[in-house]
Amino acid sequence: MSSLSTRFWGRWGYERIPIHSDRQPTRAKCSQSRQWGVVAVVFSVAALLWLTTANLRRRPYSPLDNYQNLNSLSVTIDGPVEHSPASRRAIVSSLYSDGFAIAVAVAGYSARSANVSARLLLPYLEDRVSEKALCIVRAVGWKPYPVPLILPPHGGEGIHPRFREQYTKLNIWNLDQHDVDSAVYIDADTLVRRNFDELFDSPFNFAAVPDVYDAGDPRGFSLTFNAGVLAFRPSSKVYEDMRRKIEIAEYPLKQAEQAFLNLYFGGTCVRLPYIYNANLAIKSRSPILWQRLTDEMRVVHYTTLKPFIHDGRASDAILTSTDIEEAMEQGARRQGGFFEEEVVWWKTAYRRMMSEYGDAIRECRV
């Protein structure tokens, strides 16, 4: 009997048919053994077929297979595309705790270093971010403004704990109230390596990069998008519509606003190339593809490794220079130095930022 069939029958309490005996078996016993062996094989094959078809019947959730037509927003903007001036463009991120102040500062500094022609606007949670943290991000050019916390739907049931504040991201669609026509959102754990001004003049209302999962995740490359980098046209009407739909839409709640946005924009999202959201998971799955993209990467997304977090433990306090140096050294050594080059990219931006703005940032800590 095969090891696979043995595992199957063992699971249901069947014992293996003995294959060794002190006495020579009779012809009748040999025939009976063969019959039982055939029966066992037949049942094993039938069971495997049943399990396989059952798995096929239980298809994983997909926002397009489960499409609910939540919005009527057109794919392209109405009328011809006009070049928007820098004053009406925005790079926007988010700050929900002091622990990410340095990371947000580096992200903004890297965008400035890449000469992206747009304002730096930073929504933050007023009761969770200190004046010291706001001082740090202002030092490199961010203009912070307070936004209300958007609680997860259904009382937060089923949501991953570290995503509880993430629905607050939806506030960025209100940027039209800040005289913004076109915007690009970047997560705090991103680094801008090259200019992406072309995104501001895109004719599309919403664009994002397909998601990629870590090497140990069978989902691999996906048609769903990652919400760490978003190119969009702000609209208070869209914001109000999303707020109404959060409670009635049906989608997996664990991944919070990313799952909701994939359902809301799933059928109208323009999928951007990976260079606009170079998720480190790409390198884990395909180092060859990562190498192909490296020279054109606009934004690197430190998903599986954050060079500013030591031992993988996020802090709610402003990170010290010692914390960050230790985190960068540790990150460069992880997985035998697999992400050493990418850590160096972030380290270079951080040290250049401190060279230019270090005095102002240190004064903020006092």
From TrEMBL:
Domain of life the protein comes from: Eukaryota
Alphabetically ordered keywords of this record: Membrane, Transferase, Transmembrane, Transmembrane helix
Transmembrane regions: 36-56
Molecular function per GO: glycosyltransferase activity
SUPFAM superfamilies registered for this protein in UniProt: Nucleotide-diphospho-sugar transferases
InterPro entries: Glyco_trans_8 (IPR002495), GNT1/Glycosyltrans_8 (IPR050587), Nucleotide-diphossugar_trans (IPR029044)
Name of the molecule in the record: Glycosyltransferase family 8 protein
